[in-house]
Design brief:
The chain has helices at 3-9, 24-32, 35-39, 48-53, 107-123, 140-146; strands at 14-18, 67-74, 77-86, 93-101, 128-134, 150-159, 162-172. With 174 residues, the protein is an alpha+beta fold. The chain has a 7-stranded mixed sheet, sandwiched between helices.
Length: 174
């Protein structure tokens, strides 16, 4: 099941499609508009190489075919990047590696998009979603808690020579 296709059926006025290297410029331009996000784990603005590397990066013990990198578009404009690793870290679990909304996307609209994603994942037999939030992030914890996710663990993530403290949140689908 292709997640973008199924997710599209749950949406009105919004298009979801899998992003590829043909979208490298779009991905970089969108990520470059989010310097605060990247400041959590690196000491410089995102580079083009780092942005497009997102398309191919998978966590340890995951494979490229488990990854889905999606763009959500409204009125032809990219409004949300979503990076999912399906069946990771265990079967029927989904890791949300990136949820990067446009600054103009309201919390209510983000919530609606997230809830429609959950319905899509349930249709794909997923039972749980997990994600991490940087401890210095002042807005994400409240958003995810409002969506029904709960904090389950605090840990440290290492990226190159830098480390960041994160909280792992999970959403157990009913």
């Amino acid at each position: 099941m292709e997640l973008a296709t199924v997710w599209n059926h749950a949406l009105t006025g919004t298009t979801v499609r899998e992003l590829t290297h043909a979208d490298d410029d779009l991905i970089y331009q969108f990520q470059a508009k989010h310097p605060a996000y990247f400041e959590h784990f690196q000491d410089h603005p995102v580079t083009r190489r780092e942005a497009i590397q997102d398309l191919d990066d998978v966590p340890l013990n995951a494979t490229a075919d488990q990854k889905t990198y999606l763009g959500v578009f409204e009125q032809g404009q990219l409004v949300l990047l979503v990076d999912l690793i399906v069946d990771y870290p265990l079967p029927s679990l989904v890791w949300l590696g990136l949820w990067l909304p446009d600054a103009q996307l309201t919390a209510d609209r983000q919530a609606a998009l997230y809830q429609s994603l959950v319905e899509t994942l349930k249709a794909a037999d997923a039972v749980q979603l997990q994600l991490s939030v940087f401890m210095g992030d002042r807005t994400a914890p409240a958003f995810w808690e409002d969506q029904g996710l709960t904090a389950v663990q605090r840990t440290t993530v290492v990226r190159g020579e830098r480390t960041a403290n994160v909280t792992i949140y999970q959403d157990k689908f009913a």
